[in-house]
């Protein structure tokens, strides 16, 4: 690996500094050494980036790496390999591992394994409650001391208003900004459901998960955040009423952020008519009207972040009857291309706004030091370079250990060429480093 690299002639989109220019970027000793046109390579290896886009490395706020406990689905090594292939330099691993990430020991184990793999930084998300059981609070203080900044029982909704209030109030006591993130679905309304409750669920003979299940919990969480002054984050928003609730709460000064997934921005429950288990996700794909509300909310800033909710499963788990298959789709390797194809190219979202939502905003929420930063001299060289025009067909094998992608068989525009972590190429010319 060369000690220095000159990335020549890229369109540099720096959402952190609100700049969009053509420039060369010289990288040396893990940091950005110079930015400008016609730079002298000073002996550095030169990568021709003309016609390509260079941006801060992508950051995923919602990733299931499965390890420890479910290594047959994904490992930290294979998950961060998928992350690098998708242009991500940092991901946050969710807490529903086995054992659950509810104390500092598991946090340290995850970080050590990610460091050994060396393909992407991993910022573990800590559990709000012990064992994700919803009964008693986990060791938040211990995990905050270990560097955790986001807590979530994702996969489970925080079961009671009292538990959520206690977590939000407790989180305010720490000097560092600590965020409580919730999976917003009322369990009493979604139990036994497999897809959005509506015309298609009735015609397919499948029990539904109504949009009201999300709306009710989002309203509860926002009310508690308003009363407590705590910092709430709404995971994978899927319904139009939830978007409107978040919009109003932000207008009223509630400390709330929210995320949406690429698959909720692209697909609807129409895509389940063939019982495609790769499109069975949680929360479920909803109506075209819900999808349009999500896109509008992302465009106007109501929704802050695009997060993958990368959820790998073993082949035999997904290749089963629809009602037996677990929910979830992998998403790290297709996220940017899906956004470019379905939002940026049609004009729904500008490219700088897309980069902001996939890098700057998630890094800020996650407290991911060194990521989502301005591309400036002295800054860390955590970067992505992609071809915004290259078309490709999504098909296995993937860099991920899993292959349950909702985008399988779809043609997307936008391909990762290079991913750089602290000045080292984790992806070069589209190939992940061995």
Shape: globular
CATH homologous group name of the largest domain: Metal-dependent hydrolases
Name the CATH class of the largest domain: Alpha Beta
Q: Helical percent range?
A: 25-40%
Strand content: 15-25%
CATH architecture designation of the largest domain: Alpha-Beta Barrel
Tell me, rounded to a whole number, the average pLDDT.
Answer: 97
- Please compute the radius of gyration using only Cα atoms: 21 Å
List the helices and strands and how they pair.
Blueprint: E1 4-14, E2 19-28, E3 31-36, E4 45-48, E5 53-56, E6 58-63, H1 76-85, E7 88-93, H2 104-117, E8 121-122, H3 140-145, E9 150-152, H4 161-171, E10 179-182, H5 187-190, E11 195-196, H6 199-204, E12 208-209, H7 211-228, E13 232-234, H8 240-251, E14 256-260, H9 262-266, H10 288-299, E15 305-306, H11 315-318, H12 335-344, H13 351-366, E16 383-393, E17 411-421, E18 424-428, E19 431-432
Parallel strand pairs: 1-4, 1-5, 6-7, 7-8, 9-10, 10-13, 11-12, 13-14, 14-15
Antiparallel strand pairs: 1-2, 2-3, 5-16, 16-17, 17-18, 18-19
Helix pairs in contact: 1-2, 4-7, 7-8, 8-10
């Amino acid at each position: 690996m060369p000690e220095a690299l000159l990335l020549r002639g890229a369109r540099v989109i720096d959402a952190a500094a609100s700049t969009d220019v053509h420039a060369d970027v010289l990288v040396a000793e893990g940091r950005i050494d110079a930015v400008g046109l016609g730079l002298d390579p000073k002996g550095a290896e030169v990568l021709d980036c003309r016609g390509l886009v260079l941006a801060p490395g992508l950051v995923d706020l919602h990733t299931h790496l499965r390890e420890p406990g479910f290594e047959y689905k994904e490992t930290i090594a294979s998950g961060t390999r998928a992350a690098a292939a998708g242009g991500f330099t940092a991901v946050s691993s969710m807490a529903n591992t086995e054992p659950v990430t509810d104390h500092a020991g598991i946090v340290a184990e995850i970080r050590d394994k990610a460091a050994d793999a060396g393909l992407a930084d991993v910022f573990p998300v800590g559990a709000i409650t012990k064992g994700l059981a919803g009964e008693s609070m986990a060791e938040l203080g211990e995990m905050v001391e270990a560097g955790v900044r986001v807590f979530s029982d994702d996969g489970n909704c925080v079961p009671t208003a009292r538990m959520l209030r206690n977590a939000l109030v407790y989180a305010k006591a720490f000097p560092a900004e600590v965020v409580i993130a919730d999976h917003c679905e009322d369990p009493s309304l979604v139990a036994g459901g497999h897809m959005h409750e509506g015309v298609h669920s009735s015609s397919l003979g499948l029990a539904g998960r109504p949009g009201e299940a999300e709306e009710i919990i989002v309203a509860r969480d926002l009310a508690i955040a308003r009363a407590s002054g705590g910092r709430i984050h709404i995971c994978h928003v899927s319904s139009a009423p939830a978007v409107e609730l978040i919009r109003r709460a932000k207008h009223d000064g509630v400390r709330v952020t929210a995320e949406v997934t690429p698959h909720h921005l692209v697909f609807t429950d129409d895509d389940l008519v063939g019982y495609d288990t790769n499109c069975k996700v949680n929360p479920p794909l909803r109506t075209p009207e819900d999808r349009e509300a999500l896109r509008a909310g992302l465009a106007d800033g109501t929704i802050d972040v695009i997060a993958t909710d990368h959820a790998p499963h073993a082949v035999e788990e997904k290749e089963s009857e629809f009602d037996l298959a677990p929910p979830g789709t992998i998403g790290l390797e297709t996220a940017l291309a899906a956004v470019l194809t379905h939002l940026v190219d049609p004009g729904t979202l500008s490219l700088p706004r897309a980069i902001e939502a996939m890098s700057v905003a998630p890094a800020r929420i996650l407290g991911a030091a060194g990521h989502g930063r301005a591309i400036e001299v002295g800054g860390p060289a955590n970067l992505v370079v992609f071809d915004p025009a290259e078309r490709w067909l999504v098909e296995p094998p993937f860099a991920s250990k899993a292959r349950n992608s909702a985008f399988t068989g779809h043609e997307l525009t936008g391909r990762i060429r290079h991913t750089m972590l602290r000045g080292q190429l984790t992806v070069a010319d589209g190939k992940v480093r061995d």
